Structures are given as structure tokens and as C-alpha cells.
Amino acid sequence: MTEHNAVQSGADARSTSELVHDLTDQVSTLVRDEIQLATAELKEKGKNAGIGAGMFGAAGVVAGYGGMAAIACVVLALALVLPAWLAALIVTVALFALAGVLALVGRGRLRRGTPPVPEQAVQSVQRDIATVKEHAHR
């Protein structure tokens, strides 16, 4: 019984304001440490993402060079059966035709994406506002 009272009186020796002050300090320290941990983690992830994006871009450049080599290969293959100038002209016309088709398809897709306003969401919000106004007037 006396041990219980001694422990209890030791715990009670600190005032409530001291306990609240300690709690505030500990919570502040915890939040600060968590923010530092999150910052370090985001820096590491950002670094990895940056390196990955750079490597992806480099892969695109190398793939572009590969595409140019493939085009040269097609020109040279056609040059075996046609004059070289005609083979190059045929490949050039085919590439411009492909670029035109891609541009037209891309323009169509771009038009579907503009204006960049979520029209369905806006309509839904407007309906919600109208419903709230209607219920407010009742």
C-alpha cells in the first residue's frame, strides 16, 4: 500500500501544466521528425524519378536514331531495285503521309480534350447547388 502511494505521489509531483508542456514539446518533436523523414523520403523518390525520366528520354533519343537507321535501310533496300533518288523519294513521301495522318488524328483527339473543363462535374455541381437551394427555400 505504501509503495502504491509513493509511486502515485512521485507521479503527482509534476503539475498538470508541466505535463501539458512536456506533451506539447514531445508532439512538436515528433511532428518535426516525421516531416524530416517525409522530406528525406520525397527527395530520394524525386531523385530516382528524375534519373528514371532522364534515362527514359535517352532511350527515346536512341530509339529515334534507330528509326532513322531503319529508314535508311528501307531506302537502301529499295535502291536495289529502283534508282536511289526514287527510293529516297518514295520513303520521304510515305513518311510525310504518315506524319499527316498522325497530325489529323492528333488534332481530332486534341479537339475532344478541349476546353479542359470537367463539364460533367460542373453540371453535377450545378445540380447539387440547385437541389440545396430548393431544399433551403422549403
Automatic annotation (TrEMBL):
Highest rank taxon of the organism: Bacteria
Transmembrane segments: 53-78, 84-105
Keywords: Membrane, Transmembrane, Transmembrane helix
InterPro entries: Phage_holin_3_6 (IPR009937)
Protein name: Putative superfamily III holin-X
Provenance organism: Labedaea rhizosphaerae
